[in-house]
Amino acid sequence: MEQELTFDTLKLHPDLLKGIHDLGFIRPTPIQAQAIPHILSGRDVIGCAQTGTGKTAAFVLPILHRLLSVKNRGYVRALFVAPTRELAVQSMDQLKALSRYVHLKGAAIFGGVPMEPQIKALSQGVDIISATPGRLLDHIYSGRIDFVDLEVFVLDEVDRMLDMGFLPDIKKILALLPPKRQNLVFSATMPSEILALVHEILHDPVMVEIGQRSAPAVGIRHAVYPVARHLKSELLAELLRGQGMTSVLVFTRTKHYASRLAETLERKGFRVSVLHGDRSQSQRMRALDQFRRGKNQVMVATDIAARGIDIEDISHVINFDIPNSPLDYIHRIGRTARAEATGDAFTLLAPDEESMVGDIEKALSKTLPRVTLPNFDYSRGGGGGRSDGHHRPDGHRRGGRPGGGGGGRPGGGGRHGSGHPRRHH
Q1: Residues spanned by the domain of 365
Q2: What is the average pLDDT across 343-350?
Q3: What pLDDT is attached to residue 51?
Q4: pLDDT of residue 340
Q5: Which CATH number belongs to the domain containing residue 328 in this structure?
Q6: Domain assignment present for 2
Q7: CA torsion angle for 375, 381, 387, 392 (degrees, to 10)?
Q8: What's this model's pTM, rounded to 2 decimal places?
Q9: Which of 213, 87, 89, 91 is nearest to 152 (CA)?
Q10: Distance (Å, rounded) from C-alpha 233 to C-alpha 257?
Q11: Least confident of 37-41, 123-127, 175-179, 212-216
Q12: Which of 156, 179, 209 is the last residue of a domain?
């Protein structure tokens, strides 16, 4: 009979296993089970897995195991580079949680906050750095980081890194690293330009792939709500009052819309966090903390700001604006149905966005069901102003104010209460 795979059977250091057991983890996730043995053996690894599959621990655990074999010499021995502050902090938080019985020091390095605490941490010596590219280069060029002892280099969420224009910074960082090192690259998708980059960096890599490339997480129920643009915020509020809407991530296309929509929902009595690139680091941390702890029911966010969020039990993802591409849709809805859970992905569809949903349906090879909410009045006029903060459908295309129908069946007014929508197939 085949032995059941547990963290104990992966032959990790006993002090790491104590920390893992304290956290209540018994069996590794698929990405951990496949990647950890290769990383422990010293191989370069390409990991292709959606966020939420446990990939952070898949590289943190074997790196901690490796670094335990030699005492700290005061120089950086492992470097994680990630596209967003949240992801850099997430990796460091996981490292600290898993290394509670291990005397290894780590520091998160990212922009948007004062340099002094980071300078102090670096001056005291760290084994591991988790960083965003820009702030990392600032410290390197100021002579505060020396990679003479670097053993492991990790590029996390490399697809988003390229989307955000970090390729020149990545190449600058690579030029400063010692050539003899272990390289680990993780990405939710592996388009050809990323494969070309990683094959420049990696030596004889092992590919570890969990699930289909560019495929949405399993367990997600999709629904599209056709509605006139000026009624989107009213329909969103009605959906948020439904049953089971406990932890809802709402996406808008721009920072301005995110702020305006959050204000609109707060006026309607909802507790809302907002996350976008113009928020200070302290504001972002507070917003994430309040949403994570359930103090706020709703998080309104932009795509880039939400990348790297690691929050369990998001019940719904709602696309207030249609994303710019099918890949962005897949990234967005991947925030729900994490770690084999189920979740709902709703999209509010204005008439002028129909072709964008068509592109998403082609990418998914499925038709998304159109849904109307019982007792919601889809026929009301636009009035004198907008409640959702929208003046154009996006930053590039002109869009006049649609009429009242929006493709939905007019209801009779009032509140639906039950939370059960009517589906059209």
Answers
A1: 220-424
A2: 86
A3: 62
A4: 42
A5: 3.40.50.300
A6: no
A7: 120
A8: 0.55
A9: 91
A10: 11
A11: 212-216
A12: 209
